[in-house]
Amino acid sequence: MDQLKNYLSLMTGHPVAGSIGAILTAIFSYVYGGTQFAIGAILIYAGAIALDWIAGYRASKRDGSYASEYGIDGGFRTAFLLIVPALAHRADVMMNLPNVIFAFVLFSFGLHIWKSMTANVVRCGWDVWVPVWALNYVADEIEHKIARSQKRIDEKQKYLKKDDE
């Protein structure tokens, strides 16, 4: 009860911030669901996306494959990854299911995000903290990421050589 009083005093003390928070909370609840499961699951999911971005950015800076157009594509990919669970939640609501489709989408997409994040961690050189079984599980993703980054590096070098001529 004290926590509720604290929130109410914050909202009345800062009406603009309170209004923005109330609107964002209502939108979040409508889009992803207001249950503890939905909130926790989407926060873990968004955290994994954020860690994938951090590791991917660091890896691309480290190996020289950073390119803004790849980052822009990543922005669209992230928007897609956040919209699909929202649609899954709305499908659950429409069919009166208890987060079945939502959970399936989060697990399916989350597994791929985890593989991508782990591969990016390896590319960064942070793989010291990754268990061997996890490295073995994502070995194919690591190979693909390294090959794609090498391809971007080669294209970058080829483009820069054209400018020098």
Q: Mean of the pLDDT scores?
A: 89
- Spans with pLDDT under 50 lasting ≥5 residues? none
The biggest beta sheet is recorded as: none
Query: What's the alpha carbon Rg, rounded to whole Å?
Result: 21 Å
What's the overall geometry?
A: elongated
So how many helices?
7
Distance between the termini: 72 Å
Structural class based on helices, strands and sheet pairing: mainly alpha
Level of helix content?
A: over 70%
Task: Count the beta strands.
Answer: 0
Strand composition percent: under 5%
Compressed to H and E, one letter per element, the order equals: HHHHHHH
What does this structure look like?
This protein has 165 residues and is mainly alpha-helical. Helix 4 runs antiparallel to helix 5. It is elongated. It contains seven helices and no strands. The model has no long low-confidence stretch (mean pLDDT 89). The chain starts with a helix and ends with a helix. 21% of the residues are buried.
